[in-house]
């Protein structure tokens, strides 16, 4: 069988840790060469090209590697080179510089560094393929971490290139959705990073934001972190999208890190056998590898002290890269090495497809003459899609690539340059929202001397019972905490609005919970309700006793003097007036609500109209001067007795209209007393209520005026003065009642109304009947008609 050697060029800046890239390339090529199902009869090889740091030398070594030291590209056929593709990285800038040169010859270029948006321009780099997936979910991942740690006040540091211009709007949009604010936003150019950073030192170090989100390529982050350490940016958490190489830094970690690096590293599976392969690598296995020999010499000091020659016999026989500390050389496959591994397989798969295509298109006789050029590989690279030995899907077309999963890496830093990279969590965009981030917070190593995680907020959280009040002219994360008003609560932190408790509940003193209101009404069991009920019963019993006294002494002059029947009616109505106050005590229901106002209006109308009838009777009795007068006929015919039914009928009509239009009903008051739900009767129509009360007041005022006019009429048993005082007291009580009643709240209104009923009724009883009972019971000698006629005659013949 025939063999053709096809070289893969690996172009990178050679430093100690980058040698793992060489080992990943070697491991992948040896795997492919041992695979009988891939590139049968062909053997892959590779060449390593060291890209120098100086910009003007960047293309020197790649040029020599591809075309030879003395060949001129325009006059040397490209087929003389056996290279089929070039791997570049991890620097995006270096890949771009080399890519410009490779595009001239349509040479396939595969980059293995982090995804660089500057390289995604296919018009500028049509022959370039990025192995890393586009970091479309990085903004969501970073914000998820911020929310997990309750960091809402952060600073943004990005590079002034396509990467920085891409991430800023993505991050801001995601942060705005989740109420995370930007304390400061810094876009730093790569060419003047140190100078620019010096001018921004105060803004970064003195900011209350303790979290810095840094986005850029490896070189940008490396130089930025050197500035962060050199200028003593203290106590900041640096969240980054990429790792950097620590071996190039001179003073790093001399006293231990003063900031906390948290890195979102694209997740990749472990490649079976790679670690064992690295452990088995030594110069005797690859004697032609100059880089390996130099690393071995530097790591294990294999020289003879006398001759200073490298003698492998002087090296430890079991020496291995596994002996080296992890911060110097890591035997586990890094993300960039994983991309190299996939790149080699992608080239091998594409080359395999190309060779199969040529075999089908040509005859067996012409097959030996077939030429495989690098430019022919593009069609197959663009459409390549396969699963690598680890089971991961490899796709070079950016539109078909899956979103990236991230490992969250925390760098534990120690003095003397020691570090430990530890996976503390993972972010997966394929998990349900809210569960995308998984994190072991207890494994996160914060800054030296600190055990608690940093705090990064503009304003402290508003606890339950408070709401956020925005501060004028500041970000949404800057706010004041305002206590919720009465009966409003917040049961979570950082709520923007207070929630009102339902009517049957009230807010506790902390304003963080709604509690059920206790039902409240003027109950008989309460001291106040019991006192009012006892007063009503006592006064009604007293009125009954007075009625009994009047009935017993019905034939005495003082009982007969002022219409005996009207006195009985007045006393009976007063009994009902006292008893109607009991309707206002106890738990209200529909029946008691209707009876409260209507009974009160009717019985008081009867009482006041009885007083009016008695007053009219007194006036008519003293105005009768001759038997032929019409007033004498009115008095003898009992016309005053019709006042009571007529006045009562009018009041009953008003009450009927009230009940027919808008009757009283059971209602609740949740605002008058904190923590109580007062059950009371709603009057229904206020107009009807005031009509009933106004009509009653009109009768009282008419009675008062007539009694006042008849107060000086001569008669031993003239009760006009008593009627005047009783109606004066009645009017004072109810005129005082109206403003006090309307200014009161809750069951205090009922207490005032009950007290007014009892006071006005007691006033009528005391002013009208107390003097008469005094004469009947204690001064019977004055309860005689002796001298009545003479005094009456003298009074009638008194000159005017």
Automatic annotation (TrEMBL):
<dbReference type="InterPro" id="IPR017978">
    <property type="entry name" value="GPCR_3_C"/>
</dbReference>
<dbReference type="Pfam" id="PF07562">
    <property type="entry name" value="NCD3G"/>
</dbReference>
<dbReference type="InterPro" id="IPR011500">
    <property type="entry name" value="GPCR_3_9-Cys_dom"/>
</dbReference>
<dbReference type="Pfam" id="PF01094">
    <property type="entry name" value="ANF_receptor"/>
</dbReference>
<dbReference type="InterPro" id="IPR001828">
    <property type="entry name" value="ANF_lig-bd_rcpt"/>
</dbReference>
<dbReference type="Pfam" id="PF00003">
    <property type="entry name" value="7tm_3"/>
</dbReference>
<dbReference type="GO" id="GO:0004930">
    <property type="term" value="F:G protein-coupled receptor activity"/>
</dbReference>
<keyword id="KW-1133">Transmembrane helix</keyword>
<keyword id="KW-0812">Transmembrane</keyword>
<keyword id="KW-0472">Membrane</keyword>
<keyword id="KW-0732">Signal</keyword>
<dbReference type="InterPro" id="IPR038550">
    <property type="entry name" value="GPCR_3_9-Cys_sf"/>
</dbReference>
<keyword id="KW-1003">Cell membrane</keyword>
<feature type="transmembrane region" description="Helical">
    <location>
        <begin position="528"/>
        <end position="553"/>
    </location>
</feature>
<feature type="transmembrane region" description="Helical">
    <location>
        <begin position="748"/>
        <end position="770"/>
    </location>
</feature>
<comment type="similarity">
    <text>Belongs to the G-protein coupled receptor 3 family.</text>
</comment>
<dbReference type="GO" id="GO:0005886">
    <property type="term" value="C:plasma membrane"/>
</dbReference>
<keyword id="KW-0807">Transducer</keyword>
<feature type="transmembrane region" description="Helical">
    <location>
        <begin position="722"/>
        <end position="742"/>
    </location>
</feature>
<dbReference type="InterPro" id="IPR004073">
    <property type="entry name" value="GPCR_3_vmron_rcpt_2"/>
</dbReference>
<feature type="transmembrane region" description="Helical">
    <location>
        <begin position="598"/>
        <end position="622"/>
    </location>
</feature>
<feature type="transmembrane region" description="Helical">
    <location>
        <begin position="565"/>
        <end position="586"/>
    </location>
</feature>
<dbReference type="InterPro" id="IPR000337">
    <property type="entry name" value="GPCR_3"/>
</dbReference>
<keyword id="KW-0297">G-protein coupled receptor</keyword>
<feature type="domain" description="G-protein coupled receptors family 3 profile">
    <location>
        <begin position="528"/>
        <end position="792"/>
    </location>
</feature>
<feature type="transmembrane region" description="Helical">
    <location>
        <begin position="687"/>
        <end position="710"/>
    </location>
</feature>
<protein>
    <submittedName>
        <fullName>Vomeronasal type-2 receptor 116-like</fullName>
    </submittedName>
</protein>
<keyword id="KW-0675">Receptor</keyword>
<dbReference type="InterPro" id="IPR000068">
    <property type="entry name" value="GPCR_3_Ca_sens_rcpt-rel"/>
</dbReference>
<keyword id="KW-0325">Glycoprotein</keyword>
<dbReference type="InterPro" id="IPR028082">
    <property type="entry name" value="Peripla_BP_I"/>
</dbReference>
<feature type="transmembrane region" description="Helical">
    <location>
        <begin position="634"/>
        <end position="659"/>
    </location>
</feature>
